[in-house]
Amino acid sequence: METIERPDVNTREAVGGGSRFLFPILCGAAIFYAVMQTVIVPLLPVLPGLTDSSQLAVSWMVTITLLVGAVITPIFGRLADMYGKKRILLTAFVVMTVGSLLCAVSSDIAVLIAARALQGAGAAVIPIGVSMLRDELPPHKLNGAIAMMSSTLGFGTALGLPFSAAIAQYANWHMLFIVTTLIGVVLIVATVVYVRESPAGSSGRFDGVGSVGLAAALVCLLVPVTQGGTWGWSSPAILSLFATAVVLFALWGFHQWRNDNPLVDLRVSMRRAVLIPNVVALLVGFAFFGNTLITTQLLQTPSADGGAGYDLTILQAALCQIPPSIAMIVFAQVGVRITERFGSKVTMMCGATVLTVGYIVHAISGKSLWAVIATLGVTAIGTALVYSTLSILIVRAVPAGMMAAANGVNVLLRTVGSTVCSAVVATILASHLVAGSHFSTSSGFTLAYLVCAVLAVIVFVACLALPGKAPREVHP
């Protein structure tokens, strides 16, 4: 595959002033997408009444966003490498904003599900953004910028919960999407005015067959993962979809391996320097989402009648997520300093260790509220150390013409990990309900946390296979 050479370091230094707005715009976009993902969660209990629909129908407002995000991320990443990163980034912003606008003006459940599907396009923001940062920033600024962008995704995830809960408690729920529509318009205008098109790219034809094949395989995988608890894990529909996913992934992999212009270059993806970060992304995607998902439910669970929780309101529980999110931003930069001094491998192993400790403490029942919030912070710090390093590893390991697509696969795997986490946690908590209630026992929460701890240990083991200390800076 032919590649178009990116500018050298001196050229990027000389033109750096033209991209001074790129970083804040991309960070704002990451927060925007993360808010989009979580903004609907506090509304789930009341949306059936507000939309005159069933709980199952409303649950698709979460599922469809994750599903479309997983499908579209590698596709938009490849399109960005081929046709221009600014162009595809703007496309993602416009699609997300249209989705927000539809949610702001409609209460029809079919329209809302379609609108939430459009909002899933925002998942492409992170891989395209990381690729643009590599094209535009000088090497000495790159690692810190990538780490900060990755951590703002976590901050936006936590910000969306109290934002949504406050609106739901004190205002009309449509106001949520009026605000996000306005944010989307601001991002579109800022990108058009202040961001220039990246000079890097790749030639070749777009792999339409590979795109359709990957989309079909992901749908057949993620629909049963998200709906297994509702349809029944042993139901014919669930088992058939899983079996179809296995066949489609096998056929898709064969097609990608033989294609001269693949959607995902499997030969590059199988390199140790790319494969290990992708495996870690899948596992940490699960662990990161577990920290938010399990703890938010624990904080809202009653403390009486066998409950293990703390009787917090939706808004109070959401506010507990903000301090850990701030810690993520701070420790993402700490992770960069560790990487520059000792190498990415050490940073990843430190992050996995902190994650493991956090989840083991999480699993201890009967802690005071401040201890729960502190443990949230510890686990968030471990996540930040790992997340701050993943994109840096991908940037170092793949050619410039594949940058957005490669980061798209990494983000895709994080999304799959989070989706699987949602299903696993729901199944565990549902199987440990207090008799005659809808909330879980302390043993249910403990088991859910321990599953995340085991995955953190696997992340540590996987990191042992990473290469040793890498160069301090990324070179063209």
The string of secondary-structure elements, in order, is EHHHHHHHHHEHHHHHHHHHH
Distance between the termini: 18 Å
Shape: globular
Number of strands: 2
As for the CATH topology of the largest domain, it is: Growth Hormone, Chain: A
Spatial arrangement of strands, main beta sheet:
1-2
Mean pLDDT: 84
Query: How many discrete structural domains?
Result: 2
How would you explain this protein's 3D organization?
The chain has 476 residues and is mainly α. The chain has two domains: 3-207 and 259-463, Up-down Bundle (Growth Hormone, Chain: A); 208-258. The protein is 76% helix and 1% strand. It has 19 helices and two strands. The chain has helices spanning 9-15, 22-38, 47-51, 55-83, 85-105, 109-119, 125-136, 139-170, 174-194, 208-231, 236-258, 266-269, 272-300, 314-319, 322-342, 344-362, 369-397, 403-430, 442-463; strands spanning 3-4, 201-202. It has a two-stranded antiparallel ribbon with strand order 1-2. It is globular, with a radius of gyration of 21 Å. The model is unreliable at 1-18 and 470-476 (pLDDT under 50).
Descriptive terms for the model:
disordered C terminus, globular, two-stranded antiparallel ribbon, Growth Hormone, Chain: A, mainly alpha, 476 residues
